[in-house]
Batch of 2 targets.
Target 1
Amino acid sequence: MKNIHNKNIVVGITGSIAAYKAADLVSKLKKAGANIKVVMTKSSTSFITERTLESISNNKVLVDENENDESFLHLDVAKWADIFLIAPCTANSFNKITSGLADDLLSTSCLAFKGKILIAPAMNPDMWNNEMVQKNRENMSKHKFKIIGPDYGLHACGDEGYGRMSSPEAILESLSNEVEKNELDGIRILVSAGPTREPIDPVRFISNYSSGKMGYALAESARNLGADVELISGPVSIKMPENIKITSVETSAEMLDAVLRKIPNCDVFISAAAISDYRPSHKLTEKHKSSDGELVIKLERGEDILKLAKETKAGLYAVGFSAETNNISDNAKIKLEKKNIDMIISNEANHQKGLGFESDMNEVCIIEKDSMLKISKNTKKIIADIILSRIAKNIKGNLIKIKNAR
Ligand SMILES: Cc1cc2nc3c(=O)[nH]c(=O)nc-3n(C[C@H](O)[C@H](O)[C@H](O)COP(=O)(O)O)c2cc1C
């Protein structure tokens, strides 16, 4: 359970007969190197004593009364936690918390906690199967809550069925898996995607074949790893992803403006948009009338958005894309150095091979200062997952620095 080491875990305990198992659970989490704060509901204190949990967690146990001693305790608890677990969770607390109600220290802390809350229900089978409980289970935000168990078995009351709290070992395993999935928890990632359009006149523009699929796949992978993701998108026809804030832009100037506005609040910037390098020096206000002669359009160089972003935000982890048709990795390496960025994804824009622009497939090379990783032809979704895992690995050592720098 290496990934739990040094993590701040809040263990919420509620008034269930299974509360005694929380002592074993807290002890196991402590042995795995976690820092524990126990938050108990009032009713749970008649099932297990605060003193027991205080000794095992090596920390002051928080119950409702503490809220009066220290102002904003629920907010402090929520901010302190990397992981929030409620085990055991009664039917009462389950219904309350999954519906967003908050009338005691545990439920207010839950409401203020930004990450996913892990819940290990413990109740009589008739209570677990109750229509209202099941309705709340079905309707709760799957993004916000993860249910562990409950298990099938014989209950203290003599009934048999689903409702037993999962074993501390199983809860620990689930928690560890969730931490693995949440490698980018709390990290703010800005992704740009799609093409830009540079107007020639009111009805014509210069653009490229970018579909935005790679950028959208990256944004979704980052969200799945727990990051707070914002997407700046050029004109694309892709379904809006859930839980990702999107800003739509059209021209490279709008893209620049949006990136520079958002970059101060980002830790990572993945520039996957295919931004026009050149744009017409003048936009005609009237539609250009066709004639027999040649038409010459003067183009001016656009700004290097990625380079400007990197210069604007100290400590930004910046990732660029380089779509090439020849000398792919050499050109990408030159870009990496010139823009002073951390990672560049080079890919071949080749319609004949069904790769790159518009395609669902890609073949890329992840280039960093002293390494190069080739990923052979695969879906953009899988490639996005590999890129995001690599980013997570690279910034892992800097996570605390990044969070403290805010
Ligand atoms: C002996 C006893 C055992 C209980 N065990 C459970 C239980 O396992 N699960 C549950 O949902 N409620 C159980 N209850 C009912 C809860 O304690 C009650 O709903 C309480 O209000 C829950 O408060 P809380 O969610 O704030 O901790 C039990 C009650 C008693 C008296």
Target 2
Amino acid sequence: MKALLDLGPLVREGALFASRGAAGTCRLDVQEGLWPVEADPGQLGQVVQNLVLNALEARPDGTVAISLENVRREPPAMPSGPCLRLRVTDQGPGIPADRLDRIFDPFYSTKLRGSGLGLAVTQSIVARHGGQVEVRSEPGQGTTFDVYLPALPDRAVVHPEPPAPAPAMRLRVLVMDDEEVIRRVTQRALAPAGCDVEVAGSGEEAISRWRAAREAGRPFDLAVLDLTVPGGMGGQETLAALRALDPAIRAIVSSGYSSSAVLADYRAHGFVAAITKPWTAEQLRRVVAAVGARPG
Ligand SMILES: Nc1ncnc2c1ncn2[C@@H]1O[C@H](COP(=O)(O)OP(=O)(O)OP(=O)(O)O)[C@@H](O)[C@H]1O
Ligand SMILES: [Mg+2]
């Protein structure tokens, strides 16, 4: 069923879902003030997942860059006028020129266990939305898929889930995540519930914010810590450092790796709760409300 959508959250969730348990990482770059598109959220979620899966399969330990932005296209481009462009770029081996026109064929696959349907389905969904899929690749240079969808700049997005009138929590929450998108979404999810949210992009930043807040006499009640930070201080290490400052600290671990031992036994690892990405705003609010109140 089609609805007027903000594709930002949908792309974020699709990418997180596709990269669950994968060794590679996704870098998301979603423009502010995206135009709405009229689309079926389930089908477009599938498009995002198919492209991100292919990208992660092309270079399993690589970084997949995913961006979403408003663009205006001039005729004869199809579609033309205001569009949303979803771009998925990988660092894989690329696709030889003589194979580029076959990759959208149903059942065309070069993978051992591939159905060869991912791109065929992607293309037919995008066509049903009046859009277009374009691919650019050179052997050794990685591959870029662009999906263009007609946008409706003058229409307001209808949010399927209006922010619930939850009772104000009045909690000071510090969120540490290396992904900007997650920090933004966390803030957006918790602020309407009455939380006073600060964000940190690294463990080091989280520690200095925690310390500064204590010194200013406005200590945090709760931390939400990303478990794995590529090349940086992860949630566990950060928690240990924060506990040295504040032995009574209460922290929630957040991770996209649902199979992680820390998520499975978060208490043994010193956390008061665990939440698996991608979570919805409502799930996050519920967890924070459940554990957030300061004991006593
Ligand atoms: N990012 C990419 N880099 C390199 N080759 C790609 C990429 N995306 C698609 N291909 C090529 O296109 C083929 C078809 O892709 P498609 O997603 O339709 O099927 P598949 O990935 O093989 O199978 P399935 O999607 O069912 O797992 C792939 O087998 C691969 O050869
Ligand atoms: Mg595929």
